[in-house]
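Hey Z.,

So I finally got round to the zinc ion thing we talked about over coffee. Here's the setup:
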Amino acid sequence: MGKKNRIEVIDLFDLGVAHRTGCYVLQEEELTIIETGPSPSVPYIRQGLHKLGYTLEDVKHIIVTHIHLDHAGGVGLLLRECPNANVIVHEKGARHLIDPKRLVAGARAVYGEQFQELFEPIIPVPEDRIVIKREGDTLKIGDECTLAFWDTPGHSNHHLAIYDPVSHGIFSGDTVGIRYEQLVKEGVAFYLPSTSPNQFNPTAMLDAINRMKALNLDVLYFGHYGYTENSKEAFKQIEMWLPIFVDEAKEVHQEGGNYGILRDRLLNEVQVYLQSKGIDESHPVYGLIQLDITVSSMGLMEYAMKAASA
Ligand SMILES: [Zn+2]
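And the result:
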């Protein structure tokens, strides 16, 4: 099996947008998928697997990098159609898949009125279908493929990264931020950190990135969206933006400002940067960038508040 078709990505049309959130299909002896997206994405997984010649009954493992609803909100709904699959999750995420009440409350606080359209229904995962993976654990899915799990906090405390030895790649979830596929056709590789509420930790994020860097990866797979064979560039950009995000947040916090002020400042810096790469402020990618920076600003302000009182 060649690298390119051994791993396929299904576009989940999260937020109704193409190339926003992806589900990876690992075509090994034990068919494995990574990320489900939110519940409205489940039909895209079904269709995407059919196109590859599978049904949902063929799925043996559903791995979620973390339990934020845009990555794992659809797992309960999907699992109803996958009688032969289990769900692999970080130990700190398991109980929230079994009882999603707190997860729902957290996402409602961030997404407000859009919650219903973006995420419902949230179906609990039966406890006996859950497999917890911790740092150093592995999962053999093919004769030549044993995945390795890393505990990678930074974006959230319940975050796993998954190392695939066959492609020498890592499924990084949100730990290495967001890749804007929309700019690839403009010849611009662009990445921003994802610092959502409420467990963002820049030190842990950089630690995880440093671990990944040390491997000299051939591929880096993102939750949002797609993959790059130039992981060095992705790491470099995240390392550039992360201190900007954190310093601006601390400043806005000191000045008594709110996340809206921070959002506007960060958006402005991103616009200046992208303009220097030839991307106009009317480019449709800004719909996503605005949303991402809004959510990231909420997490940054929480972090700045905690850091100031520590
Ligand atoms: Zn997330």
